Amino acid sequence: DDDDDIPQLSSHTLAALQEFYLEQQQREGMKTSQGFNQYSIGSIEEDWQLSQFWYSDETASCLANEAVVAAGKGGRIACVSAPSVYQKLKEQDGEDFSVCILEYDRRFSVYGEEFIFYDYNHPLNLPENLLPHSFDIVIADPPYLSEECLQKTAETIKYLTKGKILLCTGAIMEEQAAKHLGVKICKFIPKHSRNLANEFRCYVNYASGLD
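Structure tokens predicted for N(6)-adenine-specific DNA methyltransferase 2 (211 residues):
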């Protein structure tokens, strides 16, 4: 019988899988019944395979507020691989600034025209309507702690920004951050909703409220 070659899940594994899907359905149901806010952090769950780790609510709020102040009235903010800051900015529903999200994960396309597909391996492969030096501040959180990833993301940042840069990455990247973007480490310590093994820091190239 050909069916003999098809691997079968054990009853224990099958039960665990059914429980997982049931919990997922319940979570989705709760989101709908509670008038779910699509911009709240966690509305799109972390995908660790994409090296995604969302900021804590407090950190996302702090970085969003810093971006609004740095951008100024009517300012434009770009969030590069920093979706939780984008979500917090959208939660504010502010009319004094505009924001877009550059992200590899296409789940964020639910945010419509503000979503721009972005792959750091092709740092300048951007839409034609994304003009150079058109953002008052760029917030970026490169997905990997490698110089290659930082260097390529830096090309994107320098293309987009009018000058101000807010970089979030590991403390071990301090030297490379200064080398590629001319940014200095801040006193503010960003936190994630799940604790990371690597120490994380923020870096800026302007007088910020993060010191």
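Residues 28-36, 39-43, 46-51 have pLDDT under 50 and may be disordered.
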